[in-house]
Amino acid sequence: MEELTIEELKLKLAQEVEAKQKVVDELETARETTQKLLEETKRLKQINADLFARTVAGSKDTTIKKEPPTIDEVADTIISKLKNKR
Predict the structure, then answer these.
(1) C-alpha to C-alpha distances, 64 to 51, 56, 60, 61, nearest whole angstrom
(2) Of 2, 40, 44, 67, which has the fewest beta carbons less than 10 angstroms from its beta carbon?
(3) Quick one: which of 34, 36, 38 has its CA closest to 26?
(4) 12 contact partners, CB below 8 Å, separation of at least 6
């Protein structure tokens, strides 16, 4: 193992400290970004819930409803049933 001079050790230590600080800064940035994303997600979930509530409140029954029979259809049905009884 080679021996390093004091100056080389100082330089190596400074590089390690700088690298560690860079990692700490990146971690802090990641934490801030995560917090912002969590807040944005919470806000979007609230908007989504509001929109869903508005959609449900404003929706109409879209099931197909059969129209009531007309007088002619009722008459035809009655006549048809009477003819079948004979």
Answers:
(1) 25, 18, 12, 9
(2) 2
(3) 34
(4) 4
